[in-house]
Task: inverse folding
């Protein structure tokens, strides 16, 4: 066999207490495929409805009439599931455990406290003039107010659009304008790894760039640093919040009314506003959260993602709260003040389920076993990963060193578009192979296809498609339904194309191999190469740019940029610095190229198309297998590129 595959049985002690068994999984999976309507009619009831649905699935993936609707005649408000219904039996249970950037800074909010805080927050939004259907942009640090802001929007029927706090003012402005958001919620500053992030200042700049679009800015006090408040536009949460009621009636929403927009990178330049709606999304978030994580009443669940990504939406806020779970929220970074921090937090709060990204595992693995072994971790019973394929070495280290070979690992494959987990070794139901996404969740039918759309059977490799809808599926690209149809349903008509490549082994396990489009995955974050290219080209010194990914030890993929300068501008190290700074300010630090190579020209076909295949090979330092270059307009540029490559072994 080509790959060293470790097979791990389910640890015995875990299997004994698992919610699922292999038989139960098989039975439920079969039911979900044979009779989706019956299956989801039952599981749709797991959330709170104001008016119960009678319709279940109403979906067409036909290009000419593409629509996705679930539970379409039901009425609900998602915050009733997340808050109101928890009060009776879980009012005093911790809903959010917040761990600040500094180890001595933490506090807990019970379900009752969170409920009242969200109601207050909702009333503040109303005071500001936010109405049902309005878009509200959140640009927040990892503090409980971020979750409250999301829930408050949901409570009054406004649509939240969370923009990751690491994005630049330019990127924030672009997302504000795209969804015509007149309201922004931010904080004075964020704090991460001992450093301050000037969120309010960035917001001011974004508001300027958005040219009058933003009418009101709500500011949460995090550090108390003095920030400028613009008269008539800016308000403090603690000031208005003190004057409003701590109850607020939930707005009745149709199941298919929008809940949130979340921007994500695609193959083309502009990020897409992925739209999720109320009913189906919450069913999917809560159901996957319960089954993927083998949830029990006393669990302390920690998802280390940022609320700026879909992982934070589904597994810090909506999934755990809809299930009445205790969700830990961490403001800081894995290595501050020391590389033991993650595990110290686990000990401090008795974390039982821990969910993080392969990039964090690799970074911590590099620090050796010491920082892990200095901690206890005995409360942990289940570990999870998400965001990119996990290499077997990192998987084994996570399993043995972090989990003491006691905790199963759930490697969860999903996307912003899917709302929640799609492919996963559900704990207790399957042996584990280090690095395999393994098996479909209930209701999910994956298939592998070749470039022509031919379905491939048995042990094979191909492009990953999903053949039918699931409740958590995105509904459209905000304001651009056409783009939704084109992006996901045109490559393999009648099916959802994931953009990922995938292998299926002899045992039927799925192994995600990574993106097959022009999207790269940097530390588990999606980055469109076209987005970075247009940021580079917007600099005066740049005539042309081509961006590709290359293997990176910690980040999974690094960003490699080929840049051609305009006439009269000489390449230099200073210019590299300038260009890196420029991309940071156009998009944010996560988009900053790791390596820049100045190129006299780029390899193009005679019709002018850049041959990325060749650029990828050179960036990977594997240029002896460049394949056919005879169709190039100027084959000599290839030798020059090879000579000047930046990633020499
Ligand atoms: C892309 C989606 C889902 C939340 C975080 C990322 C890659 C995600 C895995 C995994 C292999 C994975 C895929 C996917 N990906 N999880 N467990 N194994 N690859 O969400 O930013 O929408 O990115 O991340 O390539 O398409 P996203």
Result:
């Amino acid at each position: 066999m080509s790959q060293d595959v470790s097979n791990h049985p389910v640890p015995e002690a875990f299997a004994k207490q698992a919610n699922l068994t292999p038989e139960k999984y098989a039975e439920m999976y079969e039911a979900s495929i044979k009779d989706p309507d019956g299956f989801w009619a039952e599981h749709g009831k797991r959330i709170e409805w104001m008016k119960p649905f009678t319709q279940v699935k109403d979906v067409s993936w036909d290009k000419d009439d593409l629509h996705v609707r679930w539970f379409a005649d039901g009425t609900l408000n998602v915050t009733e599931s997340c808050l109101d219904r928890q009060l009776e039996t879980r009012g005093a249970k911790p809903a959010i455990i917040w761990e600040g950037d500094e180890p001595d800074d933490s506090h807990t909010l019970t379900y009752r406290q969170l409920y009242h805080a969200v109601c207050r927050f909702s009333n503040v939004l109303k005071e500001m003039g936010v109405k049902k259907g309005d878009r509200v942009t959140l640009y927040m640090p990892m503090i409980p107010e971020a979750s409250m802001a999301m829930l408050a929007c949901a409570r009054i029927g406004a649509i939240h659009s969370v923009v990751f706090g690491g994005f630049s003012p330019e990127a924030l402005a672009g997302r504000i304008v795209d969804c015509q958001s007149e309201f922004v919620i931010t904080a004075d500053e964020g704090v991460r790894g001992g450093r301050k992030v000037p969120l309010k200042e960035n917001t001011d700049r974004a508001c300027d760039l958005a040219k009058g679009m933003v009418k009101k800015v709500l500011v949460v006090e995090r550090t108390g640093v003095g920030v400028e408040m613009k008269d008539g536009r800016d308000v403090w949460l603690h000031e208005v919040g003190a004057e409003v009621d701590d109850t607020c009636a939930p707005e009745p929403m149709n199941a298919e009314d929008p809940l949130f927009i979340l921007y994500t990178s695609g193959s083309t330049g502009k990020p897409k506003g992925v739209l999720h709606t109320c009913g189906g999304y919450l069913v999917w978030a809560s159901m996957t959260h319960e089954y993927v994580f083998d949830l029990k009443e006393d669990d302390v669940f920690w998802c280390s993602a940022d609320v700026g990504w879909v992982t934070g939406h589904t597994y810090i806020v909506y999934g755990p709260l809809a299930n009445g779970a205790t969700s830990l929220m961490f403001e800081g970074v894995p290595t501050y003040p020391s590389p033991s921090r993650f595990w110290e937090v686990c000990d401090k709060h008795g974390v039982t389920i821990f969910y993080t990204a392969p990039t964090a595992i690799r970074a911590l693995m590099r620090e050796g076993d010491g920082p892990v072994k200095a901690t206890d971790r005995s409360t942990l019973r289940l570990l999870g990963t998400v965001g990119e394929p996990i290499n077997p070495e990192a998987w084994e280290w996570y399993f043995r060193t972090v989990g003491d070979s006691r905790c199963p690992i759930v490697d969860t494959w999903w996307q912003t578009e899917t709302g929640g987990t799609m492919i996963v070794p559900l704990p207790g139901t399957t042996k584990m192979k280090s690095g395999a996404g393994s098996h479909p969740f209930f209701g999910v039918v994956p298939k592998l296809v070749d470039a022509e759309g031919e379905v491939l059977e048995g042990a094979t490799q191909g492009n990953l498609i999903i053949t039918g809808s699931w409740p958590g599926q995105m509904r459209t690209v905000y304001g651009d339904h056409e783009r939704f149809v084109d992006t996901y349903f045109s490559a393999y008509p009648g099916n959802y194309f994931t953009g990922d490549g995938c292998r299926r082994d002899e045992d039927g396990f799925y192994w995600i191999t990574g993106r097959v489009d022009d999207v790269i995955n940097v530390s588990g974050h999606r980055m469109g190469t076209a987005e970075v290219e247009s940021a580079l080209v917007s600099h005066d010194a740049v005539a042309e740019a081509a961006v590709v990914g290359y293997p990176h030890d910690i980040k999974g993929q690094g960003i490699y940029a080929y840049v051609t300068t305009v006439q009269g501008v000489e390449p230099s190290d200073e210019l590299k610095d300038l260009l890196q700074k420029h991309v940071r300010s156009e998009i944010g630090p996560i988009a900053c190229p790791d390596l820049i190579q100045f190129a006299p020209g780029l390899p193009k076909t005679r019709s002018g198309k850049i041959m990325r295949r060749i650029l990828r090979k050179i960036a990977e330092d594997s240029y002896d297998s460049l394949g056919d270059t005879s169709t190039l307009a100027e084959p000599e540029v290839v030798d020059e590129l090879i000579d000047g490559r930046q990633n020499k072994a």
